[in-house]
Design a protein that fits this description.
The complex is a heterodimer. Chain A is of the alpha/beta class. In chain A, 36% of the residues lie in helices and 25% in strands. Chain A has a six-stranded mixed beta sheet with strand order 6-7-8-3-9-10, sandwiched between helices. In chain A, strands 2-1-4-5 form a four-stranded antiparallel beta sheet, covered by helices on one side. Chain A is globular, with a radius of gyration of 18 Å. The N and C termini of chain A lie far apart (40 Å). Chain B is of the alpha+beta class. In chain B, the strands form ten sheets. In chain B, strands 2-29-28-27 form a four-stranded antiparallel beta sheet, with no helix packed on it. In chain B, strand 24 and strand 25 form a beta hairpin. The longest helix of chain B has 42 residues. Chain B starts with 14 loop residues before the first helix and ends in an 11-residue tail after the last helix. The relative contact order of chain B is 0.07. Chains A and B meet through strand 5, helix 2, strand 6 and helix 3 of A and helix 18 and helix 19 of B.
Chain lengths: 247, 862
């Protein structure tokens, strides 16, 4: 049996205002698998992602990383997060640091590496995302696609067990999306475990081993990437057709 | 940018060296002395030597002429203290003491020789005593009777041309005798002081402090009817004042703690003579050419410069008035002053103050001193303000709520309340506050380190310190914690810790005892109670603590384990009832007991206004449909979210609110004169210095190197006259901290929330993200407003002049007082301020450019 990296059971989240964002969902992610979560805005997919690395505390349910429950109040949240990479929609690069320093920050201050060691390690991941030529640049001087690739490198540098992508391309211009998608696709090919929240249906179909369609806080349909070609549920059909209309 | 190609690259210097350089620069600024000694010169001028005899005594008579008496009967006359000549002497015994009143001058010496001269006579007459005792001191009472004192407790009086011995009851050596009207004082060895209230007919022993029981009280002197001073040969100063209205001066003697000697009671100088110039101004002389002046009754004793070198002893001081006088010493030394013996500042005469260049020449040193003093308090004010400001801003933005403290970190919270705080309190009670604070920080560091190592590299934290409280016990433990906060730890004696309820109760009853309110229930009559905190500050602090503890205690005690909102049935109704009770009392209860008459339109208006406010608040609190309220009692329920309180934020808010809502000028005066913060810090600093010196003395050869450094740093920080310096730094710093806190907080709030998420998502702790990601960006944002605040601080520093800190503005005032050139002086002061502030602003502009993040900010051409 394949090793399960991430196991989510009966996850529920009610925000303080009373919004019931996630209504009990369960799924797991196996090692080397990439899972795409799609769904319309407000379907709770970002909430699920943020619950996984505890940027949001779930109301109910358990989340296991490598068979250890991580959402109990006593778990060391910093250590857990360092094992789960996260890539944000709006990049969230540290604008006062150079590209290289953005990546070595975590290595030096969380992993406790020496500066030279961290830089060596950082250059390796920068090579993987094809950003070696801009190591001394500041994020403010990079294009959106470059920024997102640096953000991916930052997550990769920590050698996480799983990387979470929170709509990695929705803040990008269409012509910049390509390079980012290419980077994510090559990560998938290298066997990185990934959970991707995305609006890019085609990308989800290309990259993901499995697709989860969320609607109104529950999993409406899930299965291999082929479900996009032949959706079973009415809701997914509607969602897909509305996405196509937009294009 | 390529740093290697530059001649000097700041970044090229290793980080540790940079820190050392900056620290050194700060210390250098910190300890630069305010006034160089070269600015002063001695006011004592030597009178041409007439012999090599030792001069033992000097006196200035009613005509303003000086008389000096020395060995071998030498008498020197100083006509108006200008023309000096030898005077024919009837004796060749050593003359050691002299006295003058408005009839005659008397002198006395060894082998019972006593001589006198009437003012209208040109000759000295000898009235030798039959018993050949060595006379130590001579004086005359209000009946012109001559008194002499000698060894073995002998007191002799010359009355009606006869020498009569007066019973003294003592056998100690008597050193000095002095009369002020009918009241006489004699000082002697073994700490002896005798007093007489009847022109010297009877003498009685006066109480002196035990510390001087083995000292030789060498000289004693009155000033008028309300002050007496005495000195011992071992350097102590005794002081006597009129106590209340019944006891006259000369009865109560106490040992002066000399501030300028680190509160020591001795100057460590072999003192020889004392001259009291005014109630608080005294001149002291001693061996090895020591002459010192104190202008505040012996608090600060400042040695004065002498214009001659040498190891001679100064034997006597004689002053014509508070300014003109002489001192005499061994080997024929006579020195003359016109400046009360005080060192005079150089270059204070013969300048034409209407000539601008000479005026500038004259004042520039003063203004530069002032500027230096200003810069010093400004630098430390800014640094203090910045660090406290950052700490406050972090407290204000800290997300730690009560819920997190209790739910997520119960183990840590329990350790804090049940181990760390009690241990600290016990340490404080047993060993004093210094060790108490030390043990608090020590324990916190110890526990944090232990916790860090126990939980290192564990995915699942095992609670705090490896102890994890099982879920089923958590709620009960929280309730017990609540109970301890409410009732304290009622152990016995000094092991007792008071709870919130007791603290509130004692504080309230303490305040009630002030009886500040009139005898009425009217709230407006209780207005004087707003001053109650000043009546008993420590009780007020306990009240605040008590309120906090009671709040937490009640909350913890009533927990049901959910940490959510709390519903108080009928809460709104209670609130509104209280409001209306207050309003109605205010309207209908009259403090004049003249009934509830409305006496003026203002009165009527005030009452109507209160009712209006009451109605508005009622409408705001109660649900809209008044009918449904009557049916449904749920609408009265008050919902509060007590667990959402952020303790750190609350504390920081109290601080900033206080400092931002009181005038800086008042803060200056309260901190310096009221709290005497400068004095307390000075005392702490001096304690620390003596500890350091004790440590350094254990280091053997290193001591000779360290000791002067410690002395110098301590002297320049905590030395005499540094109180207002310390107070000024703290007043400026604490005030500025409140404003800088708000600025920094605003900048932190301007950083996108995603940055914190991103930092946390790579595994950094909250503080780590703050330090590495949020603050570096926030500080860059707030450089312009912080610069504004720093410029403000420079300008505000002029208020330090009210606490007698001689910075630029005060120097300006002094210059105006001397020169009366108002336009020039204040103009120059203004320019000096402008130069400082403007260069600071330029520096900040440069800093802003240097720290600008590439690719951020507004751009887009012209």
């Amino acid at each position: 049996m394949e090793e399960i990296v991430l196991d989510i059971e009966n996850l529920e989240k009610i925000y303080p205002g009373g919004v019931h964002a996630v209504r009990g969902i369960s799924f797991n992610v196996k090692k080397g698998e990439s899972v795409a979560i799609i769904g319309s805005s407000g379907s709770g997919k970002s909430t699920v992602l943020r619950c996984i690395n505890r940027l949001i505390e779930p109301t109910k349910g358990t989340i296991k990383l490598n068979n250890q429950i991580i959402n109990n109040p006593m778990a060391d949240v910093n250590d857990i997060r360092s094992k789960i990479g996260m890539v944000f929609q709006s990049f969230e690069l540290f604008s006062h640091l150079t590209v290289l320093d953005n990546i070595t920050l975590g290595l030096r201050h969380v992993r406790g590496m020496k500066k030279e060691e961290a830089e060596k390690s950082a250059l390796k991941v920068l090579e993987r995302v094809d950003m070696l030529d801009r190591t001394k640049a500041f994020p403010g001087n990079l294009s959106g696609g470059q920024k997102q690739r640096v953000a991916i490198a930052r997550a990769l540098a920590m050698h996480p067990d799983v990387i979470l992508f929170d709509e990695p391309t929705s803040a990008l211009d269409p012509e910049l999306i390509g390079s980012v998608l290419q980077t994510i696709r090559s990560l998938a090919d290298e066997g990185m475990t990934m959970v991707i929240v995305t609006h890019e249906i085609n990308f989800a179909r290309d990259v993901a081993d499995r697709i989860i369609y969320m609607d109104k806080g529950v999993i409406a349909e899930q299965g291999p990437s082929e479900i996009i070609e032949s959706p079973k549920s009415e809701r997914l059909k509607q969602f897909l057709s509305s996405m196509n209309e937009e294009k | 940018m390529n740093h290697e190609n530059r001649i000097f690259s700041w970044k090229g210097i290793p980080r540790s060296s940079r820190i050392i350089i900056i620290t050194t620069m700060i210390i250098v600024v910190l300890i630069t002395p305010n006034l160089a000694e070269g600015y002063y010169e001695s006011s004592w001028e030597q009178v041409e030597k007439r012999s090599e005899n030792n001069y033992n005594s000097a006196i200035i008579d009613e005509n303003g002429d000086a008389w000096v008496f020395g060995d071998n009967g030498e008498i020197i006359f100083g006509d108006k203290i200008e023309q000096w000549m030898n005077f024919e002497s009837p004796t060749n015994e050593n003359l050691v003491t002299a006295y003058a009143n408005n009839e005659r001058i008397v002198a006395a010496g060894n082998n019972g020789v006593v001589i006198y001269k009437e003012y209208n006579s040109e000759e000295w007459v000898e009235i030798k005593m039959e018993t050949q005792i060595d006379i130590n001191s001579i004086s005359m009472n209000s009946n012109d009777e001559i008194f002499v004192v000698s060894d073995n407790g002998a007191i002799w009086c010359f009355k009606q041309d006869n020498w009569i011995e007066i019973e003294s009851l003592v056998s100690e050596k008597l050193n000095d005798i002095v009369f002020e009207g009918e009241r006489g004082l004699i000082s002697g060895s073994s700490g002896l002081i005798l007093g007489s209230e009847n022109n010297g007919e009877n003498w009685e022993i006066r109480d002196t402090p035990n510390e001087v029981a083995s000292s030789d009280i060498i000289s004693i002197d009155f000033y008028g009817i309300n002050r007496g001073y005495a000195i011992t040969s071992s350097g102590e100063i005794l002081k006597s004042t009129q106590e209340e209205l019944t006891t006259t001066v000369g009865y109560n003697w106490y040992l002066k703690e000399i501030e300028s000697e680190n509160q020591s009671t001795s100057l460590d100088i072999n003192l020889t003579s004392l001259e009291v110039l005014s109630t608080t101004k005294i001149l002291l002389s001693g061996d090895n050419g020591y002459i010192a002046l104190s202008k505040d009754g012996g608090n600060i004793v400042t040695p004065q410069l002498l214009s001659i070198e040498g190891d001679f002893s100064i034997n006597d001081i004689a002053m014509k008035n508070a300014f003109v006088g002489i001192i005499v010493g061994d080997n024929g030394t006579i020195l003359y002053t016109e400046n009360g013996g005080e060192d005079s500042a150089v270059g204070f005469e013969i300048i034409d103050l209407s000539d601008f260049s000479e005026f500038v020449d004259f004042t520039k040193d003063n203004l530069l001193e002032g500027l230096k003093a200003t810069v010093k308090i400004v630098i430390f004010g800014i640094l203090l303000g910045f660090f406290i400001g950052i700490a406050l801003a972090m407290c204000k933005t800290a997300p730690t709520t009560l819920k997190q403290m209790i739910e997520g970190d119960l183990e840590r919270t329990l350790t804090l309340f049940w181990i760390i705080i009690p241990s600290t309190l016990f340490c404080t009670r047993i060993y004093g506050s210094g060790l108490g604070i030390l043990s608090l920080s020590g324990l916190i560091i110890l526990f944090s380190l232990l916790n860090y190592y126990i939980n290192k590299n564990k995915i699942e934290k095992e609670g705090f310190l490896g102890i994890s409280i099982p879920n089923r016990h958590r709620n009960n433990l929280i309730r017990i914690l609540g109970l301890t906060l409410l009732i304290g730890m009622p152990l016995i004696g000094k092991w007792e810790i008071k709870g919130g309820i007791e603290l509130i109760y004692t504080a309230i009853s303490e305040f009630y005892n002030f009886h500040l309110g009139s005898n009425t229930f009217k709230l407006s009559a209780q207005i004087a109670y707003i001053f109650a905190p000043i009546g008993n500050p420590s009780e007020f602090m306990r009240l605040i603590l008590g309120v906090g503890l009671t709040y937490l205690g009640l909350l913890f005690l009533t927990t049901n384990g959910t940490f959510s909102k709390k519903k108080i049935p009928y809460g709104k109704l209670v609130l509104i009832s209280i409001l209306w009770v207050i309003i109605l009392t205010e309207i209908f209860v009259d403090s004049d007991s003249s009934g509830d008459k409305i006496t003026s339109w203002f009165d009527l208006g005030w009452r109507l206004f209160l009712v209006l406010i009451g109605l508005l608040v009622t409408k705001r609190i109660l649900p809209k449909e008044i009918k449904s309220v009557l049916k449904n009692s749920n609408d009265y329920t008050l919902t509060i979210e007590p667990w959402k309180i952020r303790p750190l934020q609350t504390i920081a808010t109290l601080y900033t609110d206080f400092f931002r809502n009181t005038p800086l000028l008042v803060q200056f005066m309260f901190i310096h004169f009221g709290l005497q913060l400068g004095k307390h810090i000075q005392n702490i600093g001096l304690d620390l210095t003596s500890d350091l010196i004790a440590i350094s003395s254990l280091l053997g050869p290193l001591d000779s190197l360290l000791h002067p450094i410690i002395d110098y740093i301590s002297g320049s920080l905590f030395g005499p006259g540094k109180r207002s310096y310390l107070s000024a730094i703290f007043a400026l710093g604490l005030n500025s901290a409140a404003y800088q806190c708000e600025t920094i907080r605003g900048a932190i709030a301007a950083i996108p929330s995603g940055q914190m998420e991103a930092g946390r998502s790579i595994g950094l702790t909250y503080m780590g993200t703050m330090r590495l990601i949020i603050l570096p960006q926030a500080i860059r944002i707030c450089i312009p407003p912080l610069g504004n605040e720093m410029v403000n601080l420079v300008l505000n520093s002029s208020l330090a002049s009210v606490i007698a800190y001689t910075e630029l503005t005060r120097q300006g005032k002094l210059v105006v007082a001397i020169t009366f050139q108002i336009f020039w002086t204040w103009g120059m002061v203004m320019i000096a301020y402008f130069v400082v502030t403007w260069s600071l602003a330029l520096l900040l502009r440069r800093l802003e450019e240097k720290t600008r993040i590439p690719g951020l900010g507004i751009s887009g051409g012209n």
